[in-house]
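Good day; I would like, with your permission, to put a structural problem before you. I would ask you to consider whether the tokens describe a fold that such a sequence might reasonably adopt. The full record is reproduced below for your convenience:
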Amino acid sequence: MAAVCASATGFLSEGETTRREALVKPSPLFSDIPASECREIASAAHEKHFARRQSIFLEGDPVRRVVLLTSGSAKIVQLGPSGAEVILGVRGPGEVVGTVGLRPQDRHCSMAQALGTSTALVWDAAVFETLSQRSVQLRRNITTILCQQLHELEERYREISTEKVSVRLSHQLIRLQNQLGRFGGLEIRLSREELAQLTGTTLFTVSRLLSEWNQRGIVSTRREAVSVSNFQALVELGQIE
């Protein structure tokens, strides 16, 4: 008889438990966690699919779930008083959508939306908090992730205050390529308007720069996506301009 594991939705077969372990192992959230513990944590989640542009959570919602992307991508957004979007970050496969470590009684201070068809493992927030209390390494990983997210926000704030738009855009594309490319992502599925929000500039400026870089063979663009064709040339843009 095949071994089974308890999950949020019933029981998982040994094959499904192994598949989930393989999905989460590359994630920083599961870094250095023993295989048996990894399987136990992954088995406590349920799998959920999100359509393109579907909201994952809204600003002000209670923190009811912990969401770990296993495919696709999502953007984290805050809305200004006029309703204008500010993109705080983009998450790809292996990354937590939202601020991990929040308590179930807390509320989200931003909203999250799937950029394309995406799949995630989702834990009930109270269940995940119990799991994190039992795993020292999981708590360490949560702290590391929070520190990295803070560092990225600080870096982007400094760039907006001190760097030209061309440098900011090249740095942001490099970050996104490194982030999404680790899991085989070939395309950054963001529109020009979304890239403008990420870099703190205008749609016109981003469109002009991307058109120039497209002509030079540095990037390849389409309506709502950018592919990096020459990564080294993109790095050099951020160093010399």
Q: What stands out?
A: The domain at 45-153 is CATH 2.60.120.10 (Jelly Rolls). Residues 1-6 have pLDDT under 50 and may be disordered. The helical segments are 14-24, 35-43, 125-134, 136-162, 165-181, 192-199, 203-215, 231-240.
